[in-house]
Every structure is written in C-alpha cells, then in structure tokens.
Amino acid sequence: MPSALELIGLPLSFGGMGILLFCILGVAVLAALARKEFRADLEQRRALLNQAAGLLDDAKLTVGSEVGEEEVFGADDGHGVVTARTNEG
User: Fold this and answer.
1) What is the DSSP letter of 66?
2) Does the CA dihedral 51-54-56-59 come out positive or negative?
C-alpha cells in the first residue's frame, strides 16, 4: 500500500525522513522550553502576589478560571480595597 506522500507525488526518502524527524524534534524542544518559561513566569507572579498580600490588611487570594488569573484583595490601613492581578488581559 503506498503512503499518503507517494499518492500525491512526494516520495519520502531516508534523507527526507531524517529532515522531517529533525524538524519534529526541534518543534518538540521549542514547545518544552516555552512551557518551562511559562511556568517560571507563573511562579514569579505568584511570588509577587504573596508579597503584595503581606502588605495588605485582611488579604484574600482568589484564583480565576484561566491559568495565571489570580487576584489579591485587601485594605491598606483601612482605606478601601486594593487589588493586585497577575494576568495582563
């Protein structure tokens, strides 16, 4: 049975397979690095929120439905509500 590439007139040689595998591995590595960087950013944002919560009276942390959507609510010396958010949206 011919492969899908052979049916459309693009036979895949061993060299072509090597290039294809190299590209797939490259994309996988880039995705893993992006995910690692994203998680590091989330940890940094959480650390900033924890510091902000320490400065407020009666601080409350809420977690939203989207990844990285967190807020801290609290009062500053009894003067109203102060909000700190982690998402940029």
Assistant:
1) S
2) positive
